[in-house]
Amino acid sequence: MRRRAIDTHIHLDGYDESRCESVLDGLREEGIDAVVAVSMGLESCGKTLSLARRYPDRVLPAFGFHPEQPIPPDGGAERLFRWLEEHRSEVKAIGEVGLPYFSRMEAAAAGRTFDIAPYVRLLERFVALAAQWNVPLALHAVHDDAPIVCDLLEKHGVTKAHFHWFKGDERTLSRMMDAGYYVSVTPECVYDAETQAVIRRYPLSLLLTETDGPWPFEGPFAGQETHPRMVHHVVECIARMKEVSVFEAQERLYANAKQLYGL
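Structure (tokenized):
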């Protein structure tokens, strides 16, 4: 069986430049046909676009603003949206965008107030743009934030939604399932019970594989550099959880990524 998989969520600009090139040059030998490269902000968008131009057959670029950081000051958001308009023909997806759950939890633990409203307004602009351009959304939306994001998706009629590394309650999972939203799974599924529960609950037809590299993992991956080839472990784990063959899981997960992202 020829191994083939797609890493649907990776931060390529988080790697050293020379290491990033090495990873991309060797993707096919590792059984990885493509990656979806997400962005953190305006500067990150430029780096992602450069990589997509150099590796058009391997890198699908997603452009956005990661919510676990302060809102861009002094017109920064406007500059980002102007950049998106200027590069409209090369925008294949919007991401990573979402809401700052972990920043809110950190503020609450420290006794600080946290105003989520500006983040909701910024996210709604991205959601509306994805709907207008009919491109997928790569979302950072977990736990209490996920229902808010679902509300925005429904409001703007977005169907091409991808919740990466999802954590949330049964009710929200059911809502996402009914809407046909995708959920991607990282290598932590090998050792994390909460992620395994999501796999069991969510239909194979709406699952994707990701690494979120260079984010490091624990368990059997402790001390290792996160590499797109790790999604093969995700495929094997999903196959076990779903009680299907590795080949069946591989082909379904591969087809899911192609269907959502047009790879």
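Strands lie at 5-10, 32-37, 59-63, 93-98, 137-140, 161-164, 182-185, 207-209. The radius of gyration is 17 Å.
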